[in-house]
Amino acid sequence: MRLRLLTTAILLGAIAMPPASSASPLEKYRWKHRLLVVTGPDDASARRQRRFYDAAKAGMTERQIILLEALDDGVSSHQVRAAVGTDGHRFKVYLIGKDGHTAFASQTPISADDLFKRVDAMPMRRDEMLRDRSKER
Prior knowledge:
Elements: H1 2-16, E1 34-39, H2 44-55, H3 57-62, E2 65-70, H4 75-84, E3 92-96, E4 102-106, H5 112-120, H6 123-136
Parallel strand pairs: 1-2
Antiparallel strand pairs: 1-3, 3-4
């Protein structure tokens, strides 16, 4: 009887565990970085979003925002698009919080100022800013 229960428990555990390859490519960033995920074709909108990001690199670094582009037909781009739930046929940009949840999505590029306002209003970011201020004292 114990052997049967043990075997059943092992089998159920194996079924419940997803294969390593099915893990989200975004998972490695969770609790470490915010993500600005850009999907779609490598078109004018994608290039504009990249320029917004590059022009405000210091602010992006301060807020721990990483740009992640899924603009081609490669396996990693397909995985990123699947993780955010889009087919990639049209431009879309997603702000993913450190907790892994989508905080904002847009079908048009988002300016650095607008992005920073959204991020700075997030509870986790507000805590980070308070900690940074207390370190300065």
